[in-house]
Amino acid sequence: MTLSMAVNTPLYAQTLTSQSTPLDHLKAAPRPVFKKGNTLLPLGQAHCGLSKDTYIELANYWGYGLPIEKADLTKVALANPGRYQPVVMVGGLYRFYDNYDGRNSDLPKLPPNTWIRDKNGNIIFEGGRAKVSPAAPNETFEIIGNYYGQQLGQLEKSAGQPIKLIVNEGESGLWIVAEASEEFVRQDPTVNADFNNSGLNDWFAYISRNKARQERVLKEALFKRLQSRPVYSWYQEQYGTERGRWAGWPWYMFLYEHFLDSSRKPIVSDYTAPEMYYNFHNSGWSGIQPDHLVPWDALTQALNNISGAISLGQKFTYPWTSMGWEGQPISSPDSFMGMMKTYYTAGAIGSVTMYPVCSGSLWQALYYNKPIGATTPTLIRQLTIQGHVHALFSHLEEYLRRGDLLPGPNLHPYQSSTKILPAMEFPAEGQTTQVQGNWGGPVTIPTARVLARKIQGEDRWLVTAWANVGSDRDVKVKIDNKLGTLTLRARKAGSVYVVKLVNGLVQQTLIDSDAMNPTKFLSP
Q: How far, rounded to the nearest angstrom, does the alpha carbon of residue 352 sit from its chain's CA centroid?
């Protein structure tokens, strides 16, 4: 039985008490119903660890890949051929780049010209750290790719099956211009010469092109050691959630155009992989950036990346998401559910759960499955919500694969000097409020969000309405002249409709009648 065929086995009655463990909480949650044979990507996990049995439960019933690099899970995969989708998180690449002096003899040596140097050949340090050069040779990344490829190849052999998905956690090696200024990098005469010979007159393009080259070489070297070519996702590869929002955006991201070949085929990640963390580098589900007087909420940011990627021929995304974590604001479960439904409608075909609590009693309870009390931990709650939404869209995959996200009537509020993009959503009538910024204003922002996809060549739409502000309520919206004005129930947990035009009549069906258990009434 494949992961996608896991059935919605009724759970035994379970009372949560002060002695309940994270796994108890997971087992007490209603399991989602997945559509058999769906081809969505397995869900990924980026946190500091769970117990072995929790990983297995997530892989059995919740749409998650089996992380075979953890908890001796290769044996579980080997004992159950074809049941799981093996996934691997590749991390710790910074160890190679920090090993400029060879202090870690367990790692292979990298070529001397891996790092930025001054005119005398001395490595230049910034904040006590050696920086990777944009002109670093391919050999550097072949060495690192071979190293990880050997490890992952052995994992495949131990698991008895190919890896389905590799997630590279990124944030290592050559980095964005804001952390490696032109003036700093240009002290290296090799870099200067390479830039002058590149045919580029744009420092941001030069950094981006070389980052794409380096990550591609690493990936291809890794793949040579594997049985097949898994889906590959490098964290933070994206068109840009912040692109165009303010004048300084080029300093804080790579230019996605350089991660596509001349045929617009991705050369590193198969899909964009931006972050979407509640109230972290955004204003949560609503609000503005007070100094820049534009919406700064997570969905507006996500749609900026989506719209830009679509303009470059990329329909889908595989984002890192979080409802928040202890020490930071945490979203209500229903609002996070609503955001995830809109994200999938926009083109997500999977996601990664990010949760960075890595110490203390809470982490120990999660990692060792110790008693944690009757209140469901944030991480477990998030894992279940992402699993529910993933399952819902396994039934709606046709609208993702054969449908297109509709641009809507308005332009996106983030506009760079190089490209004007559509907003990729539809305004609901009267569903706005005004917020005052630090200067100018006030700024009008939406209090309900509506996204729609349309099956190519057919009068069938997938429409999602989300009350990102306020309580559940009916909203009116115009998607297509053929449909007139639709009345939709916008819920905090989101509402996903299939709308059809049959013999000139509009048929509107709410798919997720139970908002927090959206596949409750669906059949596998």
A: 6
Provide the mean pLDDT of the chain.
94
User: 115 pLDDT exceeds 80?
Assistant: yes
Q: For residue 13, is pLDDT > 80?
A: no
Helix, strand, or coil (residue 218): helix
- Cα 120 to Cα 117, 189, 457, 503, distances in angstroms: 8, 10, 64, 78
Question: Which among 361, 329, 372, 339 is positioned nearest to 492, based on CA atoms?
Answer: 339
Contacts of 432 (CB under 8 A, 6+ apart): 444, 445, 446, 447
Q: Which secondary structure element, helix H or strand E, spans residue 287, and what is its range?
A: none
**230-252: pLDDT as tens digits:** 999 999 999 999 999 998 898 89
SS3 content of the chain, % helix, strand, coil (to 5): 30, 20, 50
Question: Residue 35: which H helix or E strand, with range?
Answer: none
- From CA 384, how far away is CA 62, in angstroms rounded? 7
> Prior bond to 442 cis, omega within 30?
yes
**Burial class of residue 80 (count of CB atoms within 10 Å of its CB; 0-12, 13-18, 19+):** middle
Element (H, E) at 90: strand 86-90
User: What digits encode the pLDDT tens for the residues 66-95?
Assistant: 999 999 999 999 999 999 999 999 999 999
Q: CB atoms < 10 A from the CB of 123, how many?
A: 16
**pLDDT of 211-228, one tens digit each?**
999 999 999 999 999 998
Tell me the mean pLDDT in the region 414-442.
Answer: 90
- The alpha carbon dihedral of 447, 448, 453, 459 has a sign of negative
Read out DSSP for 414-457?
Answer: ---SS---B--SBPPTT-EEEE--SSS--EEEESSEEEEEEETT
Please check whether residue 161 is in contact with residue 86, taking contact to mean a CB–CB distance below 8 angstroms. Answer: yes
Contacts of residue 157, defined as CB under 8 A and 6 or more positions apart, other chains included, come to: none
